[in-house]
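Much of what follows relies on a compact textual record of a protein's fold. A complete example follows; check for yourself that the lines match position by position.
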Amino acid sequence: MFVKSAKCILGAALLAGGAPVLAEHHEEEAAVGGTAALSADKTLQAARLVTEGKVYALGIITGRNTPAYPGRDYDIEVIDLGSNGSNQVTGHDDRVDTYLGIGSQIDGLGHVGTAGVHFGGVKAEDIFSPDGLRDLGTEDIPPIATRGVLIDMTRYFGVERMAELQGFGSAEIRAAAEQQGVTIGAGDVVLFHTGWMQVMDEDPEGFILRQPGINAEGARYLAQLGVVAVGSDTAGLETSDYPEGMFIPVHQILLAEYGIHILETLDTSELAADEAWEFLFVLGAPRLEGSVQAIINPVAIR
């Protein structure tokens, strides 16, 4: 969710103090982070959750009108290839000019660090290049096929959608999971349904800037359970009501401290409507060399 216009804010927030101490990790783990918890056994266990064969597309369509953080935009050009050969083959080509942090997306480990240090002790100065990251790019994210868990916060709070800026932590997550009869464990992908995607069309600016979501304490709770990724139906996963003087602390905890990927702007509405609390989660991220983020369309199967 991090944008160019916010870089100076992030720098000021980090210099102001209170930055967390980075967890120590072996260098060889840096490229995979939380995905190290994936395994063949975990995939097989998740595959057994498929009993109906119903497939849910979790990605939204990304276009020129998709709400985006200030400074981000999307454009596409389609080229007419004309008529070719004696058999008159016609067709089109295309060229996309876009920020990759628009719409449904995954944050790579090169996205956010702490005082210039990313997950695994990797220094920003060693990976940054204007023509693409030299390390920690999203092309290194392995295929993810594991157990997915949906935590429906609207069900827990008894509302159609959460209020703007509303936050929740470990107590609410545990209580909501218990209410649904599910547990969260190592190797899982955890998704939150907040109902906030309803705001996308009626108030695009509010959808981006005043979103509800998980707080820092809740993020650390999930990280310590060993989850692979955390996502939601909001543009930035975490509540926009940051602690005083801080900036995107949930991103900092999950990405920089624990190497856990963040999934944003996922359409969880159909899963919530079906009360599909656990499922096989599948994602193959685009392998664009040197990319910080990636536009995605993960699927849930049950």
